[in-house]
Write a structure and sequence with these properties.
The chain is an alpha+beta fold. It folds into three domains: 93 residues, Phosphorylase Kinase, domain 1, CATH 3.30.200; 211 residues, Orthogonal Bundle (Transferase(Phosphotransferase), domain 1), CATH 1.10.510.10; 107 residues, Roll (PH-domain like). The protein contains twelve helices and 19 strands. Strands 12, 13, 14, 15, 16, 17, 18 and 19 form an eight-stranded antiparallel sheet that branches. Strands 1-2-3-5-4 form a five-stranded antiparallel sheet, sandwiched between helices. Strands 6-9 form a two-stranded antiparallel sheet. A hairpin with a 3-residue loop joins strand 4 and strand 5. Helix 7 runs antiparallel to helix 9. The longest helix has 20 residues. The chain starts with a helix and ends with a helix. GO terms for molecular function: ATP binding; protein serine/threonine kinase activity. It is an enzyme of class 2 (transferase). Its EC number is 2.7.11.1.
């Protein structure tokens, strides 16, 4: 894209200078549309952030974080933010439009060569180096948040969950791990770091951990701590080491082991202390053949390789857990804790399973590492307002809010489970 094209986008003085073509995606407090400049027809992605919703959630500080971060990072591996527009209730971000799918779409069922994995690993190292040098932790690095370009390069997107770890705007809620800050449960299960699960904190180390998970996945077709049951996966992240037998390249194994160091206080801490200079990664034998001067100018041809099955239990709608046990629905919800008017919602993983002749409901508390069962015998489940649903069981009420799946879906499936269990009681 040349300078004139960028300037033409900036020439839009108001959000009304764009027409909204179609919706591209939604988030918890934002929507993304394909937009078109009414004057010259040039296309852009327009992210619409709901300021009112964030204010109600006491998260007004998040409104400008994403746009400020994107404006400060000028790198071909990070999505561009051309301009921002604002109304009383909305913030609009004019973003680079990406039409070639996500990295997840690209790797699905595709076994990359070691050379191709090195190509993408090198890009990710440089991207995270640039982001971290600006004092930004992305907090949700995963294949779904990487977009492909027409030339098969990758760009990091979705800075809506970022956290600052250096600079004047950094929160004072520091943890006892250097560079880590107190953090809510944020990110995607398979890529979460031990420090977030065990200490409710994250830092640049957490993004590097996610990088290690992704490179392992590129070699093996699965994430290193994967389990059919999410709370077991969290225990694996905290306590178990990956199985490296499937990776034949020993330099790759050593590289991944550096990134998957359990202790965040030792995970590449010297590099982070040195202004996030990741030369130790860029010069590692695994990436020794990469020319960083020309990395983003290479014409890359990805060779087709024999495909393998990517077993991804947590993305399946209904999945066999083990003999006689079936996963009906799994996802993150927000659970209300405390006195009703003064409590707060915090994330939990909820799972509804079929176990022989009964259906059972569990939720997992990642902070206390405890799994709780809600008895579905003589229980009731009702839909509330604004994505809320309430389960009454044994004279106790559980208040939840939708996050990963609609509340209507949870209510329908839980009520089906209650009816199903009654049939086998009779």
């Amino acid at each position: 894209m040349n300078q004139n094209q960028v300037l033409s986008r900036l020439s839009c003085k108001d959000i009304n200078d764009y027409s909204f073509v179609k919706m591209l995606g939604t988030g918890s407090y934002s929507e993304v549309f394909q937009g078109k400049n009414k004057t010259n027809g040039e296309e852009t992605a327009i992210k619409v952030i709901d300021k009112v919703f964030l204010a109600k959630q006491n998260k007004s500080h998040l409104i400008y974080l994403e746009s400020n971060a994107l404006m400060s990072i000028n790198h071909p591996g990070v999505i561009k933010c051309y301009a921002t527009y604002e109304s009383n209730t909305k913030l609009y971000l004019s973003l680079e439009l990406m039409n070639w799918g996500t990295f997840r779409d690209f790797i699905k069922g595709r076994q990359l060569t070691t050379t191709d994995i090195q190509f993408y690993a090198a890009q990710l190292v440089v991207i995270l180096e640039q982001v971290h040098k600006k004092g930004v932790v992305h907090r949700d690095v995963k294949p779904e948040n990487l977009m492909m370009t027409q030339d098969k390069f990758i760009k990091l997107i979705d800075f809506g969950a970022i956290l600052l770890f250096k600079g004047n705007d950094v929160t004072k809620e520091e943890s006892n791990i250097k560079f880590c800050r107190k953090s809510s449960f944020c990110g995607t299960g398979e890529y979460l770091s031990p420090e977030l699960l065990d200490n409710n904190c994250c830092g640049p180390q957490s993004d590097l951990w996610a990088l290690g998970v992704m490179i392992y996945e590129l070699f093996t077709g699965k994430t290193p701590f994967q389990s059919d049951i999410e709370y077991i996966m969290f225990q694996n992240i905290s306590d178990k080491e990956p199985n490296y037998d499937l990776i034949k390249d020993q330099n790759a194994v050593d590289f991944i082991q550096m990134l998957l160091t359990k202790d965040a206080g030792r995970r590449l801490i010297e590099a982070i202390e040195n202004d996030c200079d990741y030369s130790i990664l860029k010069q590692h034998p695994f990436l020794s053949n990469v020319n960083y001067e020309t990395l983003w100018q290479e014409q890359k041809e990805i060779k087709e390789q024999p495909k393998f099955e990517r077993k991804n239990i947590l993305r399946a709608k209904t999945t066999l857990v083990n003999d006689g046990v079936q996963l009906i629905l799994s996802g993150i919800v927000d659970k209300h804790s405390g006195v009703l008017m003064f409590g707060q919602y915090t994330p939990r993983t909820m799972q509804l399973i079929q176990k022989h002749f009964s259906q059972e409901l569990f939720y997992y508390n990642p902070y206390k590492k405890k799994n709780h069962q809600i008895e579905l015998i003589n229980a009731k489940c009702k839909l509330g307002n604004d994505g809320e649903f309430v389960i009454t069981s044994n004279n106790k009420k559980y208040f939840f809010k939708q996050r990963e799946h609609p509340a209507t879906q949870w209510v329908a499936l839980i009520n089906n489970a209650i009816s199903y269990n009654k049939q086998f009681q009779q």
